[in-house]
């Protein structure tokens, strides 16, 4: 069996997605997600100009060898563009191998470790009362884990809060929109949100919160300590993780569980954080961390140090990534939770899939492969539309982390 074609499909059914389709001489094909939010066309070029020509004629069943070839052979290793491209190839090859085996992908990864994959949804609102109303709605849908985000008094906009409560898409402009941020106002408001939430629903549901890299280490430590009475499932991206030593300071001051990693693209980004047990959940995602082959290594390393997974799963990942992630999640021993932001009806139609949601859990399908396909004719009806993520400024006008 040989690879005879690689095709990159760009579509925008409400937001941009990049999909790689690898086709073999026996007619079996696999698909992988290559979406990099706000930089989609960079990955398209990397795939079309540099990766696909190297795949033609190769045996698609040699997944590990192809992964090493693309990683070691480029010389310029890692980085989000390179690793997203490798991830797309890797997902597509695992899809092909599982189809050849006539098995759902998780069976090739060792079989089920659990009956379902617990997921968390996003409850948000411009006020605490609005967010608590959304918390009620998510609980009524069966969610056992829910992320809470709310507007900050005195700020016009806040990360995680949107008009569309179910399909939040932050890439909202042909050029980057500019937000204004105040750490002081934020730190005053967040504990009030979780105090009200626990008064309302008790300690039954798991509650999560995303800081989005906006605090210094000592500010993050202060927030974690103030949230301890409310028993968060995790505090996500409490500070920028470029310097892993920052998390040592946070650990000294709070027992609130910490999660980080959605912007990582290599095991080397998270090695210190895991080995020193500075975090509790590693949030690397298949599409930005080199696919299933590489994320399995990260999960295995994390398992040695009792760190669990909590893979990123926002709408900037296509259903292809979600289908592959569910097969991965259900097969590893140290799974924690899977983020699940629902896609629009248009996206679901472009990417038919067989995973299902029930009682707070997602279930991967039982068809061979990772269970997600692409309708190319329908995808062609939604042309690419340039969209940037916002940027962030402090109230004095200086740039800060979005």
Radius of gyration equals 21 Å
Query: What's the helical proportion of residues?
Result: 25-40%
What summary fits the major beta sheet? 10 strands, mixed
Total domain count: 2
Overall, the morphology is globular
Number of strands: 16
Oligomer: single chain
- Fraction in beta strands: 15-25%
The top-level CATH class of the largest domain is Alpha Beta
Q: Say what the CATH topology of the largest domain is.
A: TIM Barrel
List low-confidence stretches.
Answer: none
The name of the CATH architecture of the largest domain is Alpha-Beta Barrel
Mean pLDDT equals 97
Category by helix and strand content: alpha/beta
CATH superfamily of the largest domain: Enolase-like C-terminal domain
Number of distinct helices: 13
Order of SSEs, N→C?
A: EEEHHHHEHEEHEHEHEHEHEHEHEEHEE
- Rounded to the nearest angstrom, the distance between the terminal CA atoms is 46 Å
Explain this structure to me?
The chain has 13 helices and 16 strands. The protein is an alpha/beta fold and 402 residues long. It folds into two domains: 3-105, Enolase-like, domain 1; 108-367, TIM Barrel, CATH 3.20.20. The strands form three sheets. Strands 4, 5, 7, 8, 9, 10, 11, 12, 13 and 14 form a ten-stranded mixed sheet that branches. A hairpin with a 2-residue loop joins strand 13 and strand 14. It is globular and about 60 Å long. 49% of the residues are buried. The mean pLDDT is 97.
């Amino acid at each position: 069996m040989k690879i005879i074609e690689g095709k990159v499909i760009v579509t925008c059914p409400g937001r941009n997605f990049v999909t790689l389709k690898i086709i073999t001489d026996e007619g079996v094909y696999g698909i992988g997600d290559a979406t990099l939010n706000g930089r989609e066309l960079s990955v398209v070029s990397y795939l079309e100009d540099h990766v696909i020509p190297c795949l033609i004629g190769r045996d698609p069943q040699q997944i590990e060898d192809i992964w090493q070839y693309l990683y070691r052979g480029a010389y310029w290793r890692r980085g989000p563009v390179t690793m997203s491209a490798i991830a797309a190839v890797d997902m597509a090859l695992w899809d092909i191998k599982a189809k050849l085996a006539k098995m759902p992908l998780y069976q090739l990864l060792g079989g089920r470790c659990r009956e379902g994959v617990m997921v968390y949804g996003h409850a948000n609102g411009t006020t605490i009362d609005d967010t608590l109303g959304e918390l009620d709605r998510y609980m009524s849908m069966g969610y056992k884990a829910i992320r809470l985000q709310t507007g900050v008094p005195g700020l016009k906009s806040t990360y995680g809060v949107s008009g569309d409560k179910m399909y939040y898409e932050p890439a909202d402009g042909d050029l980057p929109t500019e937000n204004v941020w105040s750490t002081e106002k934020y730190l005053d408001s967040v504990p009030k949100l979780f105090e009200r939430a626990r008064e309302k629903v008790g300690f039954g549901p798991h509650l999560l919160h995303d800081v989005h890299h906006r605090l210094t280490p000592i500010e993050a430590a202060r927030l974690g300590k103030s949230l301890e009475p409310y028993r968060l499932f995790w505090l996500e991206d409490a500070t920028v993780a470029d310097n892993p030593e920052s998390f040592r300071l946070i650990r000294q001051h709070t027992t609130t569980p910490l999660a980080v990693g959605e912007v990582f693209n290599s095991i080397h980004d998270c090695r210190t954080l895991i080995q020193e047990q500075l975090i509790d959940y590693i949030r690397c995602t298949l599409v930005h961390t080199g696919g299933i082959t590489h994320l399995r290594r990260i999960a295995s390393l994390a398992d040695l140090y009792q760190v669990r997974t909590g893979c990123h799963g926002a709408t900037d990942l296509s259903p292809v990534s979600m289908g592959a992630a569910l097969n991965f999640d259900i097969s590893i021993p140290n799974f924690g939770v899977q983020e699940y932001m629902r896609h629009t009806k248009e996206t679901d139609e472009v990417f038919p899939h067989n995973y299902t949601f029930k009682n707070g859990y997602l279930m991967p399908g039982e068809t061979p492969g990772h269970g997600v396909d692409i309708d190319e004719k329908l995808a062609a009806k939604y042309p690419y539309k340039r969209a940037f993520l916002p940027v962030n400024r402090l109230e004095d006008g200086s740039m800060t982390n979005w």
